Amino acid sequence: MERNWSKNDIIELYNKPLVELLYEAATAHRKYHDPREVQVSTLLSIKTGGCPEDCGYCPQAARYHTDIEKNDLLSIDEVKSAAIEAQNSGSSRLCMGAAWRNVKDDAEFDQVLEMVRTVNDLGLEVCATLGMVTENQALRLAKAGLYAYNHNLDSSEEYYKEVISTRGYQDRLDTLDNARKANLTLCSGGIIGMGESVEDRAGMLAALAAIRPHPESVPVNALVAVEGTPLEEQKSVSIWEMVRMVATTRIVMPTTTVRLSAGRTDMSPEGQALCFMAGASSIFAGDKLLTTPNPDCKSDHELFDILGLIPQKAYKKGSKPAVDESYKDKPNLEEKIKWSRPGHKIERNEEAKKKAKSIRNEDGFEPRKITSVSSIDDA
After folding, report:
1. Beta strands at 282-285 and 288-289: parallel, antiparallel or unpaired
2. Which of the four CATH numbers 3.40.50.1480, 3.30.70.20, 3.30.465.10, 3.20.20.70 does domain 7-314+341-374 have?
3. 58 is catalytic
4. H helices within 253-320, ranges in order?
5. pTM, whole model, 2 decimals?
6. Averaged pLDDT, 56-63
7. 275 in active site
8. Annotation marks residue 297 as catalytic
9. d(C-alpha 182, C-alpha 25), whole Å
10. Mean per-residue pLDDT, 29-52
11. What is the mean pLDDT of residues 241-261?
């Protein structure tokens, strides 16, 4: 039976002496997981840049100057090629990410559905992170062969308002609920290092743990501060903070796959080893996480060899979804769901927006082109 964790319970757990916290987390990990197995995922940007949101950490927000040019949706053949490459490198899951606010019932969504089916046919677990989705859209994705839907909470509900103003926290929870209603597995986590407190980190974990059953995957990201974003001057979190966050997540949600996500390029092999000991059981592979750096596959294979870790096979923890041809059936009427726009102003976001506008007005400005197929990253 899943325990009811309060925020105060989680704060107390997070602040335990590190050796005790590690021991408790490692014990919980071994109870529910094979400690040698690591689920390897590849994150592919199928549509890069141009996002209308104002997430303070994200270089894909159109309003900030981060030298990322908006690209069109990839073709199905491009996605298939990237999926085969990921599979050959040892990944058992492909997560496709599009820089959208929310899914629309249009030709691009129809194309994404065909991408899902194509990757499912290859035998990979298929995950998608496309922004907010309605219940019907989630159901169509499931029928096309989607295994998991990613939509991160990012932080606590309180601190979320200091980072994002263009969508509400409840929208994220509603999206996860819509995915669950479609019998999709959930992937939802957050980012540490955005200036939040330990209380905020605990608040995020409490919100995730309140979802029943718990999300099947919880990515733990360390902020990668990108020049031009509102959070560009944030200092990197220490490895000890990352280890504590991974260990606490493992104890609070013992059956969940805890994914060591963004920020691994700043971690030593020893630091990553500590995270695996603390209960991390998944990584994102490939030298890019959507648009941010990540260790290359060769480095990960070498680390796995040193630690005696082995990649987990696809569908180890669930069944491969059967494709239902009715995913092609378009709804008679678009669902009338009004996603929120809180509308409050975040000063650092506004300043970054003004700075971007000024730079773009300068003569000779040319944004750097991002090649989406190689932009392999998490949401």
Report:
1. unpaired
2. 3.20.20.70
3. yes
4. 269-277, 297-307
5. 0.90
6. 83
7. no
8. no
9. 31
10. 91
11. 96
Domain ranges of the chain: 7-314+341-374
Catalytic-labelled residue, pool 95, 172, 244, 275: 95
Annotated catalytic residue within 55, 93, 167, 172: 55
- Catalytic: which of 93, 117, 127, 264? 127
Residue 154 DSSP one-character state:
B
The catalytically annotated residue of 180, 259, 264, 275 is 259
SS (H, E, C) 104-133: CCCHHHHHHHHHHHHHHHCCCEEEEECCEC
Q: With both helix axes pointing from N to C terminus, report the angle between 135-144 and 107-121 in degrees, rounded to the nearest 10.
A: 40
| Residue 287: per-residue pLDDT | 55
- Annotated active-site residue 51? The verdict is yes
Determine the Cα–Cα distance for residues 118 and 168; give it in Å rounded to an integer. Answer: 33
- Measure the CA angle with vertex 127, ends 55 and 272; round to 5°: 75
Q: Which of 3, 36, 58, 201 is catalytic?
A: 58
Question: Which of the residues 63, 140, 167, 187 is marked catalytic?
Answer: 187
Query: Is 344 exposed, middle or buried (CB count within 10 Å of its CB: 0-12, 13-18, 19+)?
Result: exposed
Mean pLDDT for the stretch of residues 132-139:
95
Specify the DSSP element, H or E, that contains 24. Answer: helix 18-32
Give 253-300 pLDDT, tens digit per residue: 999 999 998 878 888 999 999 999 999 999 988 655 555 556 678 888
What's the CA gap between 135 and 237, in Å, rounded? 36
